[in-house]
Amino acid sequence: MEQFEQRCLRIGDWIFEIKMVRAIRVSEYGQPYDACANISFNGSQAYIDSQLSRADKTFSGKDFATFVEFCQEMGISEASYDRYSQGQRRTRRIPIGDEQRQAPKVVNFPQSNSR
Hints:
This protein is mainly beta and 115 residues long. 11% of the residues lie in helices and 45% in strands. It contains 1 helix and 9 strands; from the N terminus they run E-E-E-E-E-E-H-E-E-E.
């Protein structure tokens, strides 16, 4: 097995490009998890989708920092996700860089009136 670039592996005659990841929050694989999310990759951008957690186990700042670190490892320059607030979808983007390890920041996308 050969790994090249940050999201490709070669095994035999096949190259596997990682385009989507399912993340679960759990202490040991195979045990029940209390949060999950899907991450899709497109070039140097990632979209975090279907982020779900149990009501008593909310998504924390530590979780956010872990997602930022994962995106850095995958060579991502920007991640985005949608959040619903007061019945409206709001898109948030996160610039990914080394400075994000210390103080991750979320940037709001301007909302457009078109649908």
